[in-house]
Amino acid sequence: MNTTYETDVVAWAREQAALLRAGRLSAIDIEHIAEEIEDVGRSEQRELASRMAVLLAHLLKWQFQPDRRGASWKSTIDVQRRLIVKRLQQTPSLKSMLDDASWMEDMWADARQLAARETAIGFAIFPESCSWNSDQVLTQTFFPD
């Protein structure tokens, strides 16, 4: 069990897990294990952020391109909502992010960028701030006019 974190993180992780299970705590790589545990949390946050940006972008497209609304957009909105709600149920500590105005501003900016790239609508046409609250955004029946 000599694999280093830098050489092969997967083999290292297996070795560290085996050391932990064997109770050989003095042999574990504490610093890298702590980093990996923190990264799990960051990964969950990134997933939520990505899904929220996609959801908001599709709601923007829904609102600003009513003539292009279709089953595909509705499906994307429904799926993102369902997966966000599921993630929040599985990881309740993430719910606080929805109440963080700065985080929501970042998600809105990402959504505007994404919607602008996916449409012929310029970035500046989309509102600078989100007029929907997180409850509306996550409500299955909410679709902006």
What does this structure look like?
The chain has 145 residues and is mainly α. It has a domain at 43-138. It is 66% helix and 0% strand. It has 6 helices and no strands. It has helices at 9-21, 30-64, 71-90, 95-98, 101-118, 134-138. Helix 2 packs antiparallel against helix 3 (71-90) and helix 2 crosses helix 5. The radius of gyration is 20 Å and the shape is elongated. The termini are far apart. The mean pLDDT is 95.
Give me a quick take on this structure:
The chain has a domain at 43-138. It is 66% helix and 0% strand. The protein contains six helices and no strands.
Based on the model shown, name its key terms:
mainly alpha; 6 helices; elongated
Order of helices and strands: HHHHHH
Number of helices: 6
- First-residue to last-residue Cα separation: 60 Å
Structural class assignment:
mainly alpha
* Content of β-strand: under 5%
Our Rg estimate from Cα atoms comes to 20 Å
Low-confidence stretches: none
Helicity, as a percent range: 55-70%
Q: Rough shape?
A: elongated
Largest sheet, described in full? none
Can you give the mean pLDDT?
95
Number of strands: 0
How are the elements arranged and paired?
Layout lengths: L8 H13 L8 H35 L6 H20 L4 H4 L2 H18 L15 H5 L7
Helix pairs in contact: 2-3, 2-5
